[in-house]
């Protein structure tokens, strides 16, 4: 890795800011949208309970493209790739604002997501190569801070813009920031490339991507798309077949997209499976909560957005305590207990109705924010901490994919459950009852994830290997 001296002093100062701005844009966009979904649905003449496609299109596209981000950066250079990512994200935001139908909006979100999928992994790769390991943690901590501010500002800003302007502005505010980022990237982003061109596992990428796409569409088919059950089963079977084909092929080729050998490390295998299942409930909350508050309980967009603040505040307040709790309790005990508690808190949202005291609701959401923060920190750390330096990059990439995929599946599952529990023409109490049943199911699914962490040994995670990879930003 090149030392900081390969950068001039100005670039060394600007580079962390540049990557941090890109991170802030993505996290703000991801949280500002959810509060605006009911208003967008009204304007586009759609059912607000079936708007999950706007969220899933972004998450799934990011998950699909993350595996290719490193190869693209090595092939075309980090400067050109990062600059192109910012251009695509900004242009996609403009297309979103100009959309006049749900299909156009989903297509624009895909364009936006192509840029988002490249921004963070390439930005992290540049920082990894530009700064020595002694400074890496400091720089990454600085870059991660905007990712915590984005979820704090996003719901409130989104609600305010929808109520006092229009939903189009949640995308238009990305334009000036994107233009500034593009200029800065062109001037200050280092241009790193691989010394030797690596062959990309194209067939593996297609099989892995097809599996994610088919399984997600199948879940969407139960909700928004109203597919016959037979077609849903065919899609699920095809997705499972593609996934099996990928892993069977990966076991016999020298350089697969993700090597099955990663799963020889028990803590990694448990962490990946835990991330996939334990995040389903948490991933659905940013989609479900604004809908519950506005559609079922009659909150204004601004009030619904402000009600989401405790989720981010709770996560920020407990973050400094996470390491001490892990040292005291160990990964196994903390993950089992916290996963079970988080599942019960999500299921507890089924008790929220018009008579629930507002302060009690805020306290409940704050506790969920605390649980989420501890959960994500512990799961990410235990997943990567046991990997050797040779496997750290591939393991980190697979974890990033699983995080995005689990959130996408969480939203798709929530949409399918909500659609299944909502009777045609439902109003008032019937709509609220559908939300109650959905939260109970999601809480139960999250609670079941605690069983995965029973497979950890007592001392897993306590003795990290030298040279392990850095944690993904955002959690």
From TrEMBL:
Protein location: Cell membrane
PROSITE patterns linked to this entry: MFS
CDD domains in the record: MFS_LmrB_MDR_like
Sequence intervals crossing the membrane: 12-33, 53-73, 82-100, 106-127, 139-161, 167-188, 200-218, 230-248, 268-292, 304-322, 334-352, 358-385, 397-417, 437-456
Membrane topology, as annotated: Multi-pass membrane protein
Gene Ontology annotations for the cellular component aspect, listed alphabetically: plasma membrane
Record GO terms (molecular function): transmembrane transporter activity
Keyword Lyase: no
Major facilitator superfamily (MFS) profile domain span: 15-461
Domain of life: Bacteria
InterPro entries, alphabetized: EmrB-like, MFS, MFS_dom, MFS_trans_sf
One Pfam match: MFS_1
Alphabetic keyword roster: Cell membrane, Membrane, Transmembrane, Transmembrane helix, Transport
Protein name: MFS transporter
Organism: Stutzerimonas degradans
């Amino acid at each position: 890795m090149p030392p900081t001296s390969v950068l001039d002093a100005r670039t060394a100062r600007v580079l962390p800011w540049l990557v941090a701005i890109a991170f802030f844009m993505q996290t703000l966009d991801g949280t500002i949208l959810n509060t605006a979904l009911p208003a967008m649905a009204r304007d586009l003449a759609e059912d607000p309970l079936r708007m999950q496609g706007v969220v899933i299109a972004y998450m799934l596209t990011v998950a699909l493209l993350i595996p290719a981000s490193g190869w693209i950066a090595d092939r075309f250079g980090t400067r050109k790739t990062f600059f192109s990512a910012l251009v695509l994200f900004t242009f996609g935001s403009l297309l979103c604002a100009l959309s006049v139908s749900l299909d156009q909006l989903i297509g624009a979100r895909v364009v936006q997501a192509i840029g988002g999928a490249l921004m963070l992994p390439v930005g992290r790769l540049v920082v990894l190569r530009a700064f020595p390991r002694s400074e890496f943690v400091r720089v990454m901590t600085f870059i991660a801070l905007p990712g915590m501010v984005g979820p704090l500002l996003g719901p409130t800003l989104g609600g305010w813009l929808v109520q006092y302007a229009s939903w189009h502005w949640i995308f238009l505010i990305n334009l000036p920031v994107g233009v500034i980022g593009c200029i800065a990237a062109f001037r200050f982003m280092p241009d790193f490339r691989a010394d030797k061109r690596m062959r990309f596992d194209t067939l593996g990428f297609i099989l892995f991507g097809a599996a994610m796409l088919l399984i997600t569409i199948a879940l969407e088919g139960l909700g928004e798309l109203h597919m016959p059950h037979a077609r849903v089963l065919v899609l699920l079977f095809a997705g499972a077949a593609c996934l099996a084909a990928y892993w069977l092929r990966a076991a016999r080729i020298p350089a697969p997209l993700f090597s099955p050998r990663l799963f020889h490390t028990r803590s990694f295998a448990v962490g990946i499976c835990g991330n996939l299942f334990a995040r389903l409930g948490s991933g659905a909350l940013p989609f479900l909560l604004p809908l519950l508050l506005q559609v079922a309980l009659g909150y204004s967009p601004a009030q619904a957005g402000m009600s989401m603040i405790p989720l981010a505040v709770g996560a920020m307040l407990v973050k400094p305590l996470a390491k001490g709790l892990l040292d005291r309790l160990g990964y196994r005990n903390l993950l089992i207990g916290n996963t079970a508690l988080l599942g019960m808190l999500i299921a507890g949202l089924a008790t929220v109705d018009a008579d629930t005291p507002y302060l009690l609701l805020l306290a409940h959401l704050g506790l969920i924010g605390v649980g989420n923060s501890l959960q994500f920190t512990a799961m990410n750390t235990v997943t990567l901490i046991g990997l050797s330096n040779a496997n750290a990059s591939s393991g980190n990439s697979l974890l990033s994919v699983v995080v995005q995929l689990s959130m996408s599946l969480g939203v798709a599952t929530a949409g399918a459950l909500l659609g299944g529990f909502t009777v045609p023409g439902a109003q008032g109490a019937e709509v609220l009852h559908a939300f109650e049943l959905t939260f109970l199911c999601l809480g139960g699914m999250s609670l079941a994830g605690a069983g995965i962490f029973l497979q950890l040994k007592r001392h897993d995670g306590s003795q990290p290997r030298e040279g392990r990879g850095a944690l993904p930003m955002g959690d």
